[in-house]
Amino acid sequence: AYERRFPTCPLIPMFVASDTVNEYKSEDEAIHVIERRCKLDIDAPRLLKKIAGVDYVYFVQKNSLNRRERTLHIEAYNETFSNRVIINEHCCYTVHPENEDWTCFEQSASLDIKSFFGFESTVEKIAMKQYTSNIKKGKEIIEYYLKQLEEEGITFVPRWTPPVACKLESSTSHTRRPVSPAISIPDSATKEGLNNKEILNTASSPSEPTAGTPDDKLDADYIKRYLGDLTPMQESCLIRLRQWLQETHKGKIPKDEHILRFLRARDFNIDKAREILCQSLTWRKQHQVDYILDTWNPPQVLQDYYAGGWHHHDKDGRPLYVLRLGQMDTKGLVRALGEEALLRYVLSINEEGLRRCEENTKVFGRPISSWTCLVDLEGLNMRHLWRPGVKALLRIIEVVEANYPETLGRLLILRAPRVFPVLWTLVSPFIDDNTRKKFLIYAGNDYQGPGGLLDYIDKEIIPDFLGGECMCEVPEGGLVPKSLYRTAEELENEDIKLWTETIYQSASVFKGAPHEVLIQIVDASSVITWDFDVCKGDIVFNIFHSKRAPQPPKKESLGAHSITSPGGNNVQLIDKVWQLGRDYSMVESPLICKEGESVQGSHVTRWPGFYILQWKFHSMPACATTNLPRVDDVLASLQVSSHKCKVMYYTEVIGSEDFRGSMTSLESSHSGFSQLSAATTSSSQSHSSSMISR
């Protein structure tokens, strides 16, 4: 009756599927052990699943039936997040010692949560809820299948008795598959690479060569010193991929250690590893990445304000990179340097990491192919969730994941604040599953306790800002002065580009000629987000809604709807014959923005249709008691030459579902940056929010 719940059970909705991993039967058929990998759809909040980066969790369940002892033992443990959460469960069915008509059932489980993105208590509640539900339903499910058996006429199973002669042939034919000796390795290793390796190693005797030629063999000392443990199949894959590169690839051939990283990233599937490696080699040649350490000097802004640097090594000998992300002005760096320079700097860090791995391999006398990254999030706040900055980060992650696989050995994230889950929600889908397993996240001062930093880094080299005694030379970061900000046009004129488009647009605003952007909304409750800087002059920011589309702007003359100037575009969409309240309506109160202010905000749309974002020249009001303008107003107006203002802006529309799941925090936008912001004010309505920082 118990076996009937596999491979899936309609009475357990969260039990989606299962696959048999191993199966064993004894010769006398008294012992039957079967191990399965079970796929579960846990009833957890959608946001928690997005933060964790998984839709399903996997458990391994081992059932051991002993017909001689008349027992069934069931063991289960989690495979997903096993480095963060440890779940063990044990169940046992036995015959009552005094009444053979009775079946006894015992069940026990243990739960140990080491860390889970700051949601430890939530995970504990979910686990207890699921476990309690399973206990209540366990008896009901067994009775359901017992009744099913009765309906099929099965009401009695005879007890096991030792056979007179062991039928070896008949009992093993159901559980063992014949395996032919491995003569050569196929071109493509399959996804179940580990199982294939076991079969190949079992089938081949130690004296047999794994591949067909004597060249398919590496020196054992070389492997041990520079590559690490390799199975014969893995060794053969490495040699054959290297030979293929030597025959077909024109240019620099990467070292064995680097080829091995791509093979490991694709579970030694030669075809897939070859594809991503060739793409990476082409990319490196196109952008001269091999020479970046020798030919590219980071701008002074990066050297002063990028709060990251190399710092000794961890206990495993891996180079240690320290990043004080919470103290870094990501928006300021993007605005002052552009995405290209930031990406180049990250690439130079990765190239330096590869070089340090080679050095440490020689120093420690064992293969070191990856580094450890320590990220301190003290000071992380809403400023770091600036949408264009997050987009730049995602692009950088995409480039690094594609070209530096298996280089991150461990990522230690310390002092994660409450806002971290929002950032993790945005970033984690872009991170490879294997890489994500290497993340260890500590909230508050948890890193100082058991299982914390001392497990991975020697006490003598823990940085001083984390309570250690070692002086760390990593820059402290801080706000990038706005005087260093550059316009989109200036950033576009940078030399070699690793991507081609900038996310910012610039616009000029004249007295009597506002700049307007049209956004069409199909689904109500979508979210319009914006980020802009007032580079020159004072402006008024408005949002309007219209049921009908405005006429496309004309570009014939200055008197038409569109003006193009060296400082940016000026587009007017609202026709002069339109009347406010009849043809279009204002959906937010006007927001006055002064020169030098940065404004971020969002608006949840109530209706479909056409929304117009407007930046309008702000005229100084006259004094209330006289028609004469005030002295301050006159002086301020003189600073605005030709009645012209300039803004740099970025807008994006987010689906309501994605917004609520990942960006809800935008609705409460009061934030400083490590207490460095001079002033922060906010303007919010029932359906919108804006943040202004000077």
TrEMBL record:
Annotated signal peptide: none
Major location category of this protein: cytoplasm
Superkingdom, taxonomy of origin: Eukaryota
Keyword Phosphoprotein: yes
Domain CRAL-TRIO intervals: 298-474
Function: May play a role in innate immunity by inhibiting the antiviral RIG-I signaling pathway. In this pathway, functions as a negative regulator of RIGI, the cytoplasmic sensor of viral nucleic acids. Prevents the interaction of RIGI with MAVS/IPS1, an important step in signal propagation. May also regulate the SLC18A3 and SLC5A7 cholinergic transporters.
Annotated GO MF terms: RIG-I binding
Record-level GO BP terms: innate immune response; negative regulation of RIG-I signaling pathway
A Pfam family of this chain: CRAL_TRIO
Protein name: SEC14-like protein 1
Localization (cell): Cytoplasm; Golgi apparatus
Keyword set includes Iron-sulfur: no
Species of provenance: Podargus strigoides
